[in-house]
Task: inverse folding
């Protein structure tokens, strides 16, 4: 008799499944049959919860008893732009409470857009003896006091990655709390903390942690100090530098250059605060090996950029600020044939004079045929340019264009930007993520619904003419996971057009559209496994649903919702 | 007797901001209902409040959360030494008794109570005064705020720096009501007014 999936011995299954590394594979095998589901759940080591309210800590720990690594994401992405009120939720503590009982051997916690208090950090440090890895991205609620607790109690720490959080940097000596016998650190990123750390403590830490491969310091570390760190850690693969600003002493630049020349493994470089043309030669020795260059904190111009890029032929990912201008982007097109990802951030989102335009984007697309990820902030754009870009780079998976004035038309023809995005979705069949901007009618959305069959994430702002716009997308794009919409003329019928989609989506966000409470109630009635939440603004009249957040969940309505979040 | 401008408190039909109030800069070509939440914050400068011939503001009206640049990045790039805040400013709602709609104001833009009051006066076209033990209320309106504990406080008692992080929202009350509340609080205990 041939073995069927359900007849294979559990031990065999468990051993096989424990070799699987991807979450997707784990999910797939768990769906084959009950037998496999049972074996798989006992072997799952890592779980990634992209919406912390889609499942409860109790349900998670009941299903997966052997988790060692958790990734948790909380608030909707638009909370990064102040669209979600304070005290909305996403507190990590209830999760930590459950983990303390169920996963005492927990090793890794990665949080994004969660609220993390100092008490929670201390709880984490004290309750998990094997704890190794903490990553906090875009979180808030903690201070450097919490970091002190982590440094003090996590004896096996290998990774501490603190990025872009809303944190009370109370300064102090949190870094000095790492005990002398801690030598296990491999990743240390405190680049976005603002206060000074004790350099002696940092130097000693770097010196004794021989496995350190990622070091990203903050702006308070100067060139001379950086050089001393590099001399101690030439094995680094990723470096975030401190500030270049200081009396320009050529010896310190030369000293740094020499230290860099010993760093043969460096592939990622970031920081560059206050860098000028005079300082840049310090990094030239490593440019040739770089695959990721993050210049998004450096206000450099096109000439400085060209100097670096001319020496960085292997670049795959590049982040810059729009001070480099179109001329700088032409340099990108000329020097970076292997480039796959480009992000151009605005130095001053409200200044209309500076920046990059359509011609910079076209220049990059001409020189970088492998480009598949773009994030581009600009003041103006044309349909023709984007159509050209689509032709040059048909492999886009992520196309995020932000024309910074809401409802800005094609500046040459004064027409809507519909054809631009139409070209992108028609040509780039692998497109997974799209952010649209500029003046857009329902036609743009008709194109998206018709062609963007692999689209998973869509961000829309100040666009569309009627409900039809959103309806085209919700009915046409089968793989949608996350949709976020603000300030568009989409109302209840648009909201309800997504009925068949919402249960297979992670979430929908709609703010300042034309959705009413009645529409939300209707949605909630039709779909019981969704949470339909309205965030009420004071002064909202009763029928207005100014902020709506809809997501699939097995945990039922939130138990921790603040009074201004109404679950229907 | 202080003169107050009744326009801001006048009840009327029609959408807020749809009068000749030229300081409410709206985005153009707007097919969306221009409800208060999408109306841009006003420019906080006070000097041109009465100048109808004022040239268009040098910066476009700033809509909350747009462009979508994370506040952390904004602070760093502009070389601000301040800590990365949760928001690029401290936005609090401001309500005024009798006004049909609320506004939002960025407290970080102001450096003192005086500046804040000037900004509020321009916004609501009224005269607001700080309370003085000796002289009582100098005007029809008094500024109050809700602090982190949920208590309603009179503006001006604590140093500005201490006020900033504790202010959750502002309410411009009629002075007469403030006195009533003070009296009732005295007799009946702490009064958490909710609007």
Result:
């Amino acid at each position: 008799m041939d073995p069927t999936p359900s007849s294979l011995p559990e031990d065999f299954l468990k051993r096989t499944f424990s070799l699987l590394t991807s979450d997707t594979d784990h999910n797939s095998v768990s769906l084959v049959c009950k037998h496999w589901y049972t074996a798989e759940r006992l072997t799952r080591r890592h779980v990634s919860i992209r919406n912390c309210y889609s499942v409860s800590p109790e349900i998670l720990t009941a299903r997966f008893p052997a988790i060692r690594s958790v990734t948790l994401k909380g608030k909707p992405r638009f909370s990064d732009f102040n669209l979600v009120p304070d005290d909305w939720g996403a507190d990590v503590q209830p999760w930590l409470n459950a983990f303390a009982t169920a996963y005492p051997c927990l090793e890794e916690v990665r949080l994004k857009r969660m609220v993390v208090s100092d008490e929670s950090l201390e709880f984490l440090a004290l309750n998990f003896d094997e704890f190794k890895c903490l990553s906090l991205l875009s979180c808030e609620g903690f201070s450097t006091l919490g970091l002190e607790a982590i440094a003090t109690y996590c004896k096996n720490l290998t990774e501490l990655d603190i990025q872009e959080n809303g944190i009370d940097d109370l300064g102090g000596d949190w870094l000095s709390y790492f005990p002398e016998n801690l030598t296990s650190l491999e990743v240390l990123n405190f680049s976005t903390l603002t206060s000074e750390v004790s350099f002696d403590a940092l130097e000693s830490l770097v010196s004794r942690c021989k496995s350190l491969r990622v070091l990203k310091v903050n702006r308070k570390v100067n060139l001379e100090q950086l050089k001393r760190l590099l001399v101690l850690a030439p094995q680094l693969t990723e470096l975030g530098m401190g500030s270049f600003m200081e009396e320009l002493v050529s010896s310190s630049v030369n000293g740094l250059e020499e230290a860099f020349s010993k760093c043969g493994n460096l592939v990622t470089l970031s920081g560059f605060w206050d860098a000028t043309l005079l300082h840049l030669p310090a990094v030239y020795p490593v440019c040739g090996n770089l695959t990721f260059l993050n210049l998004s904190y450096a206000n450099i111009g096109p000439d400085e950029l060209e100097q670096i890029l001319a020496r960085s032929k292997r670049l795959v990912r590049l982040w810059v600020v729009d001070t480099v201008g179109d001329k700088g982007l032409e340099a990108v097109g000329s020097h970076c044939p292997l480039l796959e990802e480009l992000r151009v951030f605005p130095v001053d989102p409200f200044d209309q004079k500076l920046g990059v335009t359509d011609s910079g984007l076209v220049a990059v697309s001409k020189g970088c045929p492998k480009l598949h990820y773009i994030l581009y902030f600009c003041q103006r754009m044309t349909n023709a340019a984007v159509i050209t870009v689509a032709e040059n780079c048909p492999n886009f998976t992520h196309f995020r264009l932000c024309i910074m004035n809401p409802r800005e038309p094609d500046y040459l023809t004064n027409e809507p930007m519909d054809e631009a995005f139409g070209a992108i979705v028609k040509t780039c069949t692998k497109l997974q993520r799209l952010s649209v901007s500029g003046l857009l009618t329902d036609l743009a959305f008709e194109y998206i619904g018709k062609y963007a069959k692999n689209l998973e994430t869509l961000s829309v702002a100040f666009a569309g003419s009627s409900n039809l716009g959103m309806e085209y997308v919700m009915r046409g794009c089968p793989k949608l996971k996350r949709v976020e919409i603000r300030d568009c003329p989409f109302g209840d019928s648009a909201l309800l057009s997504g009925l068949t989609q919402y249960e297979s989506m992670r979430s929908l966000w709609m703010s300042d559209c034309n959705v009413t409470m009645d529409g939300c109630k209707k949605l909630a009635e039709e779909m019981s496994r969704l949470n339909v939440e309205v965030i009420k603004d004071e002064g909202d009249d009763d029928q207005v649903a100014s902020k709506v957040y809809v997501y699939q969940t097995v945990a039922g309505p939130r138990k921790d919702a603040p009074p201004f979040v109404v679950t229907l | 007797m202080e003169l107050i401008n009744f326009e801001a408190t006048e009840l009327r039909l029609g959408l807020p901001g749809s009068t000749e109030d030229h300081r409410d800069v709206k985005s153009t070509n707007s097919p969306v209902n221009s409800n208060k939440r999408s109306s841009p914050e006003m420019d906080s400068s006070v000097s041109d409040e009465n100048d109808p011939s004022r040239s268009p503001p040098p910066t476009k009206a700033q809509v909350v959360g747009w462009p979508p640049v994370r506040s952390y990045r904004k602070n760093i790039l502009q070389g601000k030494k301040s800590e990365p805040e949760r928001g690029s400013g401290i936005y609090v709602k401001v309500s005024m008794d009798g006004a049909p709609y609320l506004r939002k104001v960025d407290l970080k833009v102001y450096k003192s109570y005086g500046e804040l009051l000037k900004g509020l006066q321009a916004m609501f076209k009224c005269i607001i005064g700080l309370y003085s033990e000796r002289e009582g209320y100098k005007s029809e309106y008094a500024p109050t705020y809700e602090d982190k504990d949920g208590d309603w406080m009179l503006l001006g008692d604590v140093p500005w720096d201490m006020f900033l992080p504790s202010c959750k929202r502002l309410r411009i009350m009629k002075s007469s009501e403030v006195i009533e509340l003070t009296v009732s609080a005295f007799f009946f205990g702490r009064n958490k007014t909710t609007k």
Q: What stands out?
A: Strands of chain B lie at 91-96, 103-106, 141-147, 152-154, 167-174.
